[in-house]
């Protein structure tokens, strides 16, 4: 009601405001932009991905050598709920891609200035799209096969959101965390993370063990990794865990993945910790890098916009397998 006790009229929100509200769920901080754009690159089949961050983490550039975007589709890609990854409701229970909601790009252009250049192998010229709020400018351009997304001045039109960001060093740390999670799950892809023109992390394509060593711990972790592998009719669990003697005071080396996607689960974390019961001091944490492969129909990844929460149709049975592995 207003001050005169009169009911306020109901109005349809503008498309731009709707996207800004959605951006609050999907794009929490600069690291969220990195996560969404890098996942799009992986879904595009890229085997080389470069991330560049500058301007106190408010400018982000992600380049890949994936399949690119068709010229006729590139503007649609920035529309709300536009995606190439699902078509029907049944597809939600058979997700084989990292992205599928069609929310990320629409959310990003509502809170940043975005330029996308992309070319498919079948086209001689690429397509360039410049987006600022509801204004979209499209043109032809010369570029390599693949896609480059440039996000400038993040949260420039939502100052309240920008005020909630931490100092640049903290936001940079969050970006490195997201970068590390994606890199650990895709050892066959070469990744580079740069601060402006200066490379911070360079990870060539390799096997899983070497990717863990390169991305996380170097020589110290290399000598303490124990392989885990179990394959049942329900699930395959593989990866590496740390020797009990190498347990640490922090939980920074604990990673769970399912079907190529990082996820968080206190339930499955307990399964691992119970396996280490009485093997390590109570005030230390084991290292683990565990990868679950399961029928997509047995999990639900459509739980949260950031897709780090996942439901399993038989958690108790999976817990037992996980713990035994």
Q: Can you tag this structure with a few keywords?
A:
five-stranded mixed sheet, alpha+beta, 8 helices, 325 residues, single chain
Can you walk me through this structure?
This protein is α+β, with helices and mostly antiparallel strands and 325 residues long. The chain starts with 14 loop residues before the first helix and ends with a helix. A hairpin with a 2-residue loop joins β4 and β5 (135-141). Residues 84-89 and 91-95 have low confidence and may be disordered. α2 (30-43) runs parallel beside α5 (168-185). The longest helix is centred in the middle third of the chain and has 18 residues, at 168-185. Helices cover 28% and strands 27% of the residues. The protein has helices at residues 15-26, 30-43, 104-109, 159-163, 168-185, 208-222, 266-275, 315-324, and strands spanning 48-54, 59-64, 113-119, 126-132, 135-141, 146-152, 190-195, 198-203, 225-231, 235-242, 254-258, 261-263, 288-294, 299-300, 311-312. The strands form 3 sheets. Strands 5-4-3-6-2-1-7-8 form an 8-stranded mixed beta sheet.
């Amino acid at each position: 009601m207003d001050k005169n006790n009169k009911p306020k009229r109901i109005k349809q929100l503008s498309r731009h405001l709707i996207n800004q509200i959605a951006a609050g769920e999907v794009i929490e901080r600069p690291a969220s932009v990195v996560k969404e754009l890098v996942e799009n690159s992986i879904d595009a089949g890229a085997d080389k991905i470069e991330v560049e961050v500058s301007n106190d983490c408010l400018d982000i550039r992600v380049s890949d050598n994936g399949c690119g975007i068709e010229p006729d589709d590139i503007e649609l890609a920035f529309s709300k709920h536009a995606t190439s990854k699902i078509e029907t409701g049944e597809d939600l229970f058979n997700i084989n891609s990292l992205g599928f909601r069609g929310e990320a790009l629409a959310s990003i252009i509502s809170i940043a200035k975005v330029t996308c250049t992309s070319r498919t192998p079948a086209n001689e010229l690429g397509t360039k799209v410049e987006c600022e709020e509801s204004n979209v400018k499209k043109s032809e351009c010369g570029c390599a096969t693949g896609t480059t997304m440039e996000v400038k001045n993040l949260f420039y039109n939502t100052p309240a959101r920008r005020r909630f960001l931490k100092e640049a060093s903290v936001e940079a740390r969050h970006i490195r965390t997201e970068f590390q999670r994606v890199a650990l799950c895709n050892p066959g892809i070469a990744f580079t993370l740069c601060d402006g023109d200066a490379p911070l992390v360079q990870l060539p394509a390799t096997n899983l063990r070497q990717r863990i060593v390169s991305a996380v711990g170097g020589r110290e972790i290399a000598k303490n990794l124990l392989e885990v592998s179990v394959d049942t009719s329900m699930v395959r669990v593989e990866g590496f865990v740390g020797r009990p003697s190498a347990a640490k005071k922090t939980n920074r080396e604990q990673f769970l993945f399912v079907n190529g996607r990082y996820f968080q689960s206190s339930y499955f974390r307990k399964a691992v910790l119970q396996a280490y019961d009485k093997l390590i001091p109570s005030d230390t944490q084991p290292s683990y890098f565990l990868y679950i492969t399961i029928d997509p129909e047995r999990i639900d990844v459509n739980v949260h916009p950031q897709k780090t929460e996942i439901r399993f149709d038989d958690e108790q049975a999976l817990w037992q397998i996980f713990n035994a592995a």
